[in-house]
UniProtKB/TrEMBL annotation:
PROSITE patterns: ADH_SHORT. Pfam families: adh_short (PF00106). Keywords: Oxidoreductase. Residues 22-204 form the Ketoreductase domain. InterPro entries: KR_dom, NAD(P)-bd_dom_sf, Sc_DH/Rdtase_CS, SDR_fam. SUPFAM superfamilies: NAD(P)-binding Rossmann-fold domains. This is Ketoreductase domain-containing protein. Belongs to the short-chain dehydrogenases/reductases (SDR) family. It comes from the Bacteria.
Length: 290
């Protein structure tokens, strides 16, 4: 037990001086927060495994982090995080070709909004498959590798401020992210004796391309298009870039933080959820998509 705690302290101390020589796996690394996180770790000297459903976007991330940039070389893979078999093969390949990761960032996610009664069973399977099962797959598979290696590691799970901000318009999305937050808390308690830290990252409104791909259930195709455009304009005006989230992710790993709300509104929502939950329930009755 004492040896495990010492390993974790050594890793945290080493993290404060950068991530030189570390192997970092990032899912959803083809754009947005995932790409910014992969590049941030690469700039600190890590070798990055960039995984994304879109192989071209993953390769572009590696090109941006590779020769000519400040970071070390990277490796690109195409994988569907919701597919258990595909994730098993991915984890096996990473271990065989590059070794056991020192840090894993389970970041891949999709957006979904709309009334609860408009969500179909397939909608629930899709949102939970990517946002929750993707995190479970990555955490289980790479967490076991870290445990077997015996020198600790760190797992980062991207949740959202929606995890503690109920909304009538985001039943599926908020549920998936709340589950990720609770999963992270449970993992953190369970894996601490192995020297494996676990952090949940909860961004708020961040200017990424998730608004352009989010599904708005219960709307026609044309209404969805208009709503996506409106959301994209709102996020663009907010102008909080994914590189700021990436910086917070690196800090969470260095300091072994359990929970990191990102953006002022996320920190405010978290405080209100703890101090005045009734106020959050009242606010949940509003529909920001209308």
């Amino acid at each position: 037990m004492a040896e495990r705690r010492t390993l974790r302290r050594d890793r945290v101390a080493r993290g404060r001086r950068g991530f030189e020589g570390d192997l970092v796996v990032v899912t959803g690394a083809g754009s947005g927060i995932g790409r910014a996180t992969a590049l941030a770790f690469a700039e600190q000297g890590a070798t990055v495994v960039a995984a994304d459903l879109d192989p071209d976007s993953a390769r572009l991330t590696v090109e941006l982090a590779g020769p000519g940039a400040e970071g070390a070389a990277g490796h690109a893979y195409a994988v569907d995080v919701s597919d258990a078999e595909a994730m098993e093969k991915f984890a096996e390949t990473v271990q065989a070709e590059h070794g056991v990761p020192d840090v894993v960032v389970n970041n891949a996610g999709i957006g979904m909004a709309g009334p609860f009664l408009e969500h179909s069973a397939e909608d629930w399977r899709r949102i939970l498959g990517v946002n929750l099962w993707g995190v479970i797959h990555g955490s289980l598979l790479f967490g076991r590798q870290m445990a077997d290696r015996g020198t600790g590691g760190h797992i980062v799970n991207t949740a959202s401020s929606a995890a503690f901000t109920p909304s009538r318009a985001m039943a599926g999305y908020a549920t998936s992210k709340a589950a990720v937050l609770m999963l992270s808390e449970c993992m953190r308690a369970d894996l601490a004796h192995l020297g494996i830290g676990v952090s949940a990252i909860c961004p708020g409104i961040v200017n990424t391309n998730i608004t352009g791909s989010s599904q708005f259930v219960g709307m026609s195709a044309e209404d969805q298009r208009r709503t996506r455009q409106k959301a994209a304009r709102t996020y663009a005006r907010r102008n909080y870039g994914p590189e700021k989230v990436a910086a917070q992710i690196l800090t969470a790993v260095r300091r072994n933080r359990a929970l990191q709300p990102v953006t002022p509104e996320a920190r405010f929502a978290y405080a209100v959820s703890r101090l005045a939950p009734g106020l959050m329930r009242l606010a949940a009755k509003s529909d920001p998509t209308r």
